[in-house]
């Protein structure tokens, strides 16, 4: 064979191979883009390659034939458009037919592949399809076999027959809500067990999450219900209910114990105070020396302090148990505050603390429990004097702000650190809690103040700076409306929670605490 002819054949073959590779690459790109991540099939490439070769021939012959018949001006564009359209339609038809044939072949090879999988089978629980009357038309779900093992043949029967008699009204109401337009209804019902196991109860507690299925007109056509076993949740509810009952019983027992002990201790304390007063007055004979007089005075002071603690405990237990009754009356506020100042003036003078008041004219009358107001003011002034060193000052202020009556007690005492503010007001809690504390007390004063303020529907606020002093502000409704709007039995959360967290001014080191002290049923 002629060498030049051989070389020409080789060149043509290489050109053909290059054209084939380029065409396959282009067709592969088109098929992959159209089918997402699906890899182009070799049969599809082979069919499209042959179609493209025929298209190139038709692209030349069809426009040429039309040009000869109707002229080049109209024949060329019409011929090209017609050839391209025929190519695209034929390509789509051939590829679709190839894929459809491959799918049929795979189903013929694997008969089970034709069975569609319900997506609800991967979801927990039992899925039921109900018609508008509540009859079960289908079932599915991951736990279908477990639920159907004790249900009494639910298919084609009203589901309400499976529900316990006491819960059938709730199920019927939920189904009616879906008919009336609700999209989702969730109810808890009990199902009867026809056969009981050794560790099974008569009823199974389940939760039905019912979703409405509607047509284009919005009419209910079916209900899809997911059933979940909530036996564990019900056991937790029962355990919580038992613990809550036990805690309430213990709380009540503790309150009764405090009230009983406080009441029983006051009788001997009154005797101690009475006899110590007789000894100190030397009504039945002179004491021999000053040491005896000092001891009698110490007995009197200790007994008075213990009686004060007992009375505070009794009042606190009454508030905590909801049995503290407020005796509401209208009285002159300034007169009551001045009386409290006079009661504690001797204590302040003995410690070297200046106690003063700044009461504006026209303070007027307020409606409150006068005894409770005295307890609030006396406790606050007593605390201020206790934590103020000699040479310091304690000031009592009061004002009317709209419909509120505001009392403020400020001191120049030791102050309170910002991190200690959160501990204030807790029963039997004191800020200075080390062994060498300098101030006596039971830690009940502020708890009682907060409780009495809560019963009046008032607010309680503390502002303090370490080493500079403290300001305590009590705000009460002047007309007594806080008590009138409170709960009927005057139950309060004791000790009342402070509604805001401790806020500290980093520049001044000032800490403030505000307490809404809202009354609530315990």
Automatic annotation (TrEMBL):
Identify the enzyme class. Answer: transferase
State which residue ranges cross the membrane: 51-72, 78-97
GO terms (molecular function) for this protein are: kinase activity
Q: What is its EC number?
A: 2.7.13.3
List all Basic and acidic residues biased stretches.
Answer: 504-522
Its catalytic activity? Answer: ATP + protein L-histidine = ADP + protein N-phospho-L-histidine
Q: Where is the Histidine kinase domain?
A: 260-480
UniProt key word Cytoplasm: no
- Keyword line: Kinase, Membrane, Phosphoprotein, Transferase, Transmembrane, Transmembrane helix, Two-component regulatory system
Q: Which PANTHER family match?
A: HISTIDINE KINASE 1, TWO-COMPONENT HISTIDINE KINASE
Q: Could you tell me what this protein is called?
A: histidine kinase
């Amino acid at each position: 064979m002629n060498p030049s002819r051989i070389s020409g054949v080789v060149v043509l073959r290489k050109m053909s191979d290059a054209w084939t590779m380029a065409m396959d690459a282009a067709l592969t790109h088109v098929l992959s883009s159209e089918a997402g991540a699906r890899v182009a099939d070799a049969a599809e490439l082979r069919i499209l390659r042959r179609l493209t070769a025929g298209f190139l021939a038709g692209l030349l012959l069809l426009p040429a034939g039309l040009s000869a018949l109707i002229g080049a001006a109209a024949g060329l564009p019409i011929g090209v458009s017609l050839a391209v359209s025929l190519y695209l339609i034929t390509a789509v038809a051939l590829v679709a037919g190839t894929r459809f044939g491959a799918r049929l072949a795979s189903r013929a090879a694997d008969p089970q592949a034709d069975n569609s999988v319900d997506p609800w089978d991967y979801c927990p629980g039992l899925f039921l399809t109900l018609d508008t009357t509540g009859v079960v038309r289908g079932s599915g779900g991951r736990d279908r076999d477990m639920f159907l093992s004790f249900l009494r043949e639910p298919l084609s029967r009203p589901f309400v027959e499976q529900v316990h008699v006491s819960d059938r009204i709730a199920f019927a109401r939920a189904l009616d809500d879906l008919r009336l337009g609700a999209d989702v209804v969730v109810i808890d019902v009990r199902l009867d067990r026809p056969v009981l196991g050794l560790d099974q109860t008569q009823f199974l507690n389940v939760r039905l999450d019912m979703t409405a299925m509607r047509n284009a007109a919005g009419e209910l056509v079916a209900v899809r219900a997911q059933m979940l076993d909530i036996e564990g949740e019900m056991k937790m509810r029962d355990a919580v209910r038992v613990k809550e009952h036990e805690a309430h019983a213990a709380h009540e027992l503790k309150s009764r114990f405090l009230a009983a002990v406080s009441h029983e201790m006051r009788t001997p304390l009154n005797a101690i105070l009475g006899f110590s007063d007789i000894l100190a007055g030397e009504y039945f004979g002179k004491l021999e020396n000053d040491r005896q007089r000092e001891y009698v005075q110490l007995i009197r002071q200790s007994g008075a302090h213990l009686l004060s603690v007992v009375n505070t405990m009794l009042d606190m237990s009454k508030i905590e148990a909801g049995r503290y009754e407020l005796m509401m009356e209208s009285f002159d506020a300034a007169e009551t505050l001045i009386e409290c100042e006079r009661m504690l003036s001797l204590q302040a003078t003995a410690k070297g603390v200046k106690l003063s008041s700044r009461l504006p004219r026209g303070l007027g009358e307020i409606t409150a429990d006068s005894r409770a107001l005295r307890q609030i003011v006396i406790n606050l002034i007593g605390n201020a004097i206790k934590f103020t060193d000699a040479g310091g000052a304690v000031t009592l202020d009061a004002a009317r702000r709209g419909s509120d009556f505001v009392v403020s007690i400020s001191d120049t005492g030791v102050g309170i650190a910002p991190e200690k503010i959160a501990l204030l007001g807790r029963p039997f809690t004191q800020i200075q809690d080390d062994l060498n504390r300098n101030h006596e007390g039971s830690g009940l004063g502020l708890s009682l103040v907060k409780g009495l303020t809560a019963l009046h529907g008032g607010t309680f606020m503390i502002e303090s700076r370490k080493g500079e002093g403290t300001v305590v502000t009590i705000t009460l409704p002047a007309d007594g409306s806080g008590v009138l709007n409170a709960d009927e039995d005057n139950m309060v959360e004791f000790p009342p929670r402070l509604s805001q967290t401790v806020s500290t001014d980093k520049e001044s080191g000032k800490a403030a605490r505000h307490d809404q002290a809202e009354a609530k049923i315990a």
